[in-house]
Amino acid sequence: MTPEAQPTKGTIRVLQLYPRDMNIYGDWGNALVLQQRIKWHGYTPELLEYNVDDDFPDDIDIIVGGGGQDSGQLVIQDDLQARADQLRKLADDGAPMLVICGLYQLFGKFFKTSAGPVIPGISILDVETHGTDERLIGNVTLKSSEFGDVLGYENHSGQTTLGPGVQPLGTVTKGAGNNSKDGHEGARYRNVVASYLHGSLLPKNPAIADFLIRTAAERKYGTFVPGTPDDDYARLAREHAARRPR
Ligand code: GLN
Predict the structure, then answer these.
(1) pLDDT per residue over 204-232, tens digit each?
(2) Which is the catalytic residue, given 41, 156, 184, 198?
(3) Which of 8, 23, 30, 74 can bridge 66 by disulfide, Cβ–Cβ 3.0-4.6 Å?
(4) Which residues span the domain enclosing 139?
(5) What ipTM does this complex have?
(6) Quick one: which atom of ligand 1 is closest to the CA of 129?
């Protein structure tokens, strides 16, 4: 039997939010890693995109969203508000989501840009973000109790503070993370993982990819039966990233 002809364990539908306007520093790679690892686990991936004014697809199992310039965040803000209830319901129902940088900020309460405008968020995450004149740029490593050592790259002017409704993704060991003071990176709420890390994040951090796939399968099928992913590429990417200077 060819690999394509083998029966799969089911379909997992991955939706990329606003890839036209919110997708920088390789964030698209997160969707591609999910697609490949879903296959390796023996499920059938379906990769969909949602941009401003599109119809919102049904039966989504995983949502991924990337970063963007402040200008991209201004472009999507009204459409995102129109989708807020739907996205909040999905998050509260335990749908796994990964939101990076610009969409992390807008999944929070608001982003007050350094240029002045306040972009309202959709308050899935109890966080708020204030633009500053300082850009936090460079390679980042953090320790996460759930995912071990997490590696990535940050570039943002907004600084995010966490409220009591979320947990940090981890504690920074190199770089800045959420802001230049706390030593925390990212946020966790139910099965939502939010992070400032581009790079993209998932190629170097397959534990996070597998968390999203596992929780999607459990939510949809009641159980997750793992396959045997090829982790060599991730090991090489991590080794390479660990050798890079800041
Ligand atoms: N525009 C936001 C900021 O500068 C987000 C940047 C990003 O997504 N990398 O803080």
Answers:
(1) 999 999 999 999 999 999 999 999 999 89
(2) 198
(3) 23
(4) 9-243
(5) 0.96
(6) 10
Instruction: Tell whether 219 is in a known binding site.
Output: no
**Binding-site residues, ligand 1, Cβ < 6 A:** 24, 67-70, 73, 101-102, 155-158
In a domain, 170, yes or no: yes
* Ligand 1 atom at shortest distance from the alpha carbon of 100: 8
- Per the structure, the count of domains in the chain is 1
Q: What is the CATH number of the domain that holds 112?
A: 3.40.50.880
pTM summary value: 0.96
**Alpha carbon distances (Å) from 29 to 40, 70, 78:** 16, 21, 26
Decide if 156 is catalytic: no
Q: Which of 199, 97, 98 is nearest to 151 (CA)?
A: 199
User: 178 lies in a domain?
Assistant: yes
Residue pLDDT, tens place only, 96-140: 999 999 999 999 999 999 999 999 999 999 999 999 999 999 999
Instruction: Report the nearest-CA residue for atom 8 of ligand 1.
Output: 67
Between the CA of residue 118 and those of 6, 101, 113, 132, what are the distances in Å?
51, 16, 6, 13
Ligand 1 mean position to 102 CA, how many Å? 5
List the catalytic residue out of 41, 101, 156, 184: 101
Query: Residue 156: left (phi > 0), alpha (psi -120 to 50), or beta?
Result: beta
